[in-house]
Amino acid sequence: MAGVLTALALATALAVAALLRDRLGSACALGVGLAGTCLAVSAVGMLLLDLQRLQPWPVRAGLLGAFAALVLLAFTVRRRLPAITLPLRTRHTVATTIAVVVLLVCGVGLRLHPSPYLQGGQDQGIYVNVGHHIARTGRLRPVDRVMQGALRGVPQADVLAAYRIKQPPPGSPLAGVREGRWTAGLHIEDAAAGRLVPAFFHLMPVWFALAELDWGFARSTWPLVLFWQLSGLAAFALARRLALAGADPHLQHRADRVGIVALAALALHPLDLWISSFTVTENLARACLLAAAWLSLEAGAAERQGRAGVALLAGLAGLCFAAGAFTRGSFVAHAIVLAGALLLVPRDAPRARRVLLRTLVAGTALAVVQAVLHSWPYFFSAATNHFHVPRLTPSTGEAVAWTFAAAAALLLADLGLRRLPPRLAALAPRLLRIVAGLMLAAGALVSLRDLFAPANELGPDQQVLAVLLRHGGPLPLLLGFLGLAVAVRRAHASLLPWVFLASAIVLLTALKQGVRYEFYYARYFVADALPVLLVAAACLSGHLIARLAARRGPRWAAAGFAVLLPAWLVPPLRLLPREVYWTRDLADDPAQLASIFEHVPEDGLLLFDDRAPGRWRGLLAAPALLSFGRNALAVPPRGHIVEGALKAGTPVFLLSGGWEPDERQRWPSAAHGPWRTRVVARGIYRAVRAETVAGGVPGRLVDGGGPWELQQLDRSIWRSSGAFSLYPESVFVATTAAGLVTEPLPLPAGARLELWLPARGPACEVTAALRTGDAAHELAPLPRERDDQLLWSLPAAPGPAALALTARCEGAFAWRWLSVRRSE
């Protein structure tokens, strides 16, 4: 039944929240319920993936067990924690709840139909296709049967040569790990076994697979809606907690409003709207970042106030951050930065800090091990490309050992730093503030330099600041930088690790230049910085309004709020009517792709027309293999591969991006001559997408699809010289009781006709003739060169004609192939 597991997950989260409400408070209990449920689903999915059992019944059993364990754990926690007095419900809390619900509904409504993008290419298309492959097979690594040598008539050596596989030398760490590239986003892990591996972290495709098993293929990307909803709730709660952590009572009184402003800014920001509707890992990573920060601050506040649940909140915070590391490689760098900052603040809220550090280090270490085992050496190449770390090539075992050694070193360093003299320990927060301030100042200087530099909105090297200004306006950007500066100067010691991480994120965002294609590459640069700046801006705006209320009174504060909020939120709204936001750029219909590939049998070989645009081969090969289980050759085919498959009786299909006028065609190839084909299916592929000119802002929508045509190659081999070979069961030659008759064919001048017979077949007397209309011209036989070969000479200029061969045999007439070749 569709949606049963989703309903059970929601019921589990609400049940946990209800059980812990009078122990932790409503907000923290809801956070524990949602975070615990999402972490449980992620853990079950990753465990079943590693066991190669991510299939319907194991998933149902695993999730039911995890949900039951969560509820039992909530019962146990409830018994051990003391009850607290819940605040009375007031009109203010009711209004806050209504505002949050309305904003969440509006935000979800804008993102209710996430992109079902299926075409290949690294990241977005591969994530969906890998998710569908996992849902179909239960395992991560696809097996290319063509490369494996399991397809009739297609030698493995020829396929490996087509993919340019070079056998790694003995003892190389690349052997059996990465021996080549299949297509963008897919690496060849073991060419001899035909085993491929997706080149990224795999928690996101696991969520897509789980959603497909519950809702079906067409709705497999619905977790994007959940990820944004969690991000919105966490942004509200994080901004609210930051406001409550301040010393200003006027700001504490307005904490709920600060959270509402942060939620509204995230819900209505055009860049976030586009990113959150696109199938990229930044969506899940953002939810992990915001949830981890909120739960960590709640744990610290609970410890300072003497409330219960410190270890539970801090542990969930560390695990949420580690889930981000399971999602995206850059989160490993974020985890290192955060862990280093946590080491330097051992005195404030020590229990929450200790639990957070331990769970963060342990969870991130497991994420790195998972990445090394499933994505090596992509993990190290990504570190080189994104963080300029020297490229490393350790073996898998060495990389895992280094990971555990680094994790142990961090935990041992924590034990040592906790024994520092008080005077040295007091210097650590100052050091964090200084370094964070320097990083923020550097990021601001780089941004200001870019602001006054000549910018080309349509250029392929746009600056990050230009993208943020164009989509969000100058006010939230200015408020975000100033808010972070205020936090660096005045934040409580318990907030310093997160302020330090936020400053590092902003610096990296400012330093990473060159947004080549705005609606694709912008997510690399702003996905982490955007929520950081929005939450900081919301907190600063609340602080300004509180200062105004303290000095001038509530009326001036209300007037300032009425001016500031529209000036912030209204300008970006002008971009919302842009149609690209509503059509889900790069959206594809799974049913359309299914209609293309359903005509290819499972034992067939699928090729892509090298005359068509590269997208037909480079972008449709991945869904053909991963989502639809077809044997796709992702590289341009070579003649001997096609000929071998046809000789062995393997069905060979060709996908073209266009129509030809005839039902029977020739597929020209400069390298191997034309092939005879017949049309199997035709259709129009609709893919509305935004037109991007030179990397600039999409101005209009275009149909990125077009006509497609699926052809089946006939069992005939044509050469560029005009010579050809016809095999049994070719549609261009008919077998009768008396012999063979072909349709009219272009016969080259001065050629000879060859008929190859079975080596141990019955003795036959065969005559050959040319038929042109009603006229027939008998051909003169030539001396045999072999016993199983019959030869005839063709006229000097035969022109198009049908070949007719009459056979009188002692048994049933059989033949191997009929060939026309130029005389040697």
Automatic annotation (TrEMBL):
Membrane-spanning intervals of the chain: 27-49, 61-81, 93-112, 192-210, 222-239, 260-278, 308-325, 331-347, 359-379, 399-418, 430-448, 468-488, 495-515, 521-544, 556-576
Protein name: Glycosyltransferase RgtA/B/C/D-like domain-containing protein
Keyword match Transmembrane helix: yes
Organism whose genome encodes this protein: Nannocystis pusilla
Keyword Lyase: no
Keywords: Membrane, Transmembrane, Transmembrane helix
Superkingdom to which the source organism belongs: Bacteria
